[in-house]
Write a structure and sequence with these properties.
Peptidase_T2, binds aspartic acid, Glutamine Phosphoribosylpyrophosphate, subunit 1, domain 1, Ntn_hydrolases_N, five-stranded mixed beta sheet, single chain, hydrolase activity, acting on carbon-nitrogen (but not peptide) bonds, in linear amides, 20% strand, alpha+beta
């Protein structure tokens, strides 16, 4: 008998069923209710990010502690690195492409699956905030290059020179030795990907980078690609990536990790599986770095990477000292 028909016949409505403890109490469900497992405690609020960007998680924590939402926390958190001229892999002071231009990629994603992204953006210090404007002020998800830059000015962002004295010098040196060749190695990149859960238990994420140093002009990595460099599903968790973007795009890495968590894997297990899928296609290669970072709805975290050296920083109620060094594929 169809459920609706049964309810009609028996004179019960769904609401009636739900609010009828006397009926339920006399049958077996009572025992079931008594032994129902206690609610899983959630570690929240919490902010985590790739690498050892402690000022970024500290900023995110400041937002979360005051009751701010996860979206504001991740945006303001990664903005710290975008503004830091000594960080030569993100925002102002990021290393340029092989033509000497700093081109930035960033994206952001909220609890409702809304997202925004900018790719190949020049002259703007905070690509993550432009990405958020794309999400909130346009019907689109990705804006690229000149269009993204024009949009940023319309939104009130200022034009800035992103090349610093230090990155200019390094670029001049690179030009002398490189023969204008873009080489993948494990040193010339380090994205900040950040994930946070706020007091309401909602998750958001952001990812921002200047990409691979001395890349071919026009190259876009995984970091601004929803599903590759970042993915959030508020029912399950979130994931973000750092390392050679081409490999992360190929496996739609962050989406894969969230889906693996949906199927029951812990954040740690999911990150390990993500890295292993990439390594399966790159047997024996030692020239690149891939790191994944993930958080689930309970606030459990995990990180895994191809090479030693990958860390991630967690900021929780216990403080910001809880820096995790993730385990490595090569050491297995
Ligand atoms: N994933 C970034 C990119 O490929 C770089 C990095 O994180 O190291 O552009």
């Amino acid at each position: 008998m169809k459920r609706r028909k049964f309810l009609k016949k028996s004179g019960l409505t769904t609401a009636g069923l739900l609010s009828a403890p006397a009926v339920v109490a006399s049958c077996k469900t009572e025992t079931k209710q008594e032994i129902a497992s206690p609610p899983v405690s959630v570690r929240k609020p919490i902010a985590i990010c790739t690498w050892n960007f402690m000022n970024a998680t500290a900023k995110a924590w400041e937002v979360l502690e005051k009751g701010g939402n996860a979206l504001d926390a991740v945006e303001q958190g990664v903005m710290i690195e975008e503004a830091d001229v000594t960080n030569e892999t993100v925002g102002v002071g990021g290393r340029p492409d092989r033509d000497g231009n700093v081109t930035l990629d960033a994206c952001i994603m909220d609890k409702d699956g809304n997202c925004g992204s900018v790719v190949y953006l020049q002259n703007i210090a905070h690509p993550v905030s432009v990405a958020r404007k794309v999400m909130e002020e346009t019907p689109h998800i990705i804006l690229a290059g000149k269009g993204a830059e024009q949009f940023a000015y319309e939104q009130g962002f200022k034009k800035e020179d992103l090349l610093t004295e230090s990155t200019r010098k390094q670029y001049e040196e690179w030009k002398k030795e490189s023969k204008y060749e873009t080489v993948i190695n494990i040193e010339n990149h380090d994205t900040i990907g950040m994930l946070a859960i706020d007091k309401n238990g909602d998750i958001a994420g952001a990812c921002t980078t200047s990409g691979m140093a001395y890349k071919v002009a026009g190259r876009v990595g995984d970091s601004p690609i929803i599903g590759a460099g970042l993915y959030v599903d508020n029912e399950v968790g979130g994931a973000t990536a750092t390392g050679v973007g081409e490999e992360v795009i190929r496996t739609v890495g962050s989406f894969l990790i969230v889906e693996l968590m949906r199927q029951g894997k812990s954040p740690q297990e999911a990150c390990e599986e993500g890295v292993k899928r990439i390594m399966k296609k790159n047997e024996g290669r030692k020239d690149f770095q891939i790191g994944f970072l993930a958080i689930n709805k309970q606030g459990e975290t995990g990180g895994y990477c191809v090479h030693p050296g990958f860390t991630y920083r967690e900021y929780t109620e216990e403080g910001h000292e809880n820096r995790h060094v993730s385990s490595f594929y090569q050491n297995e």
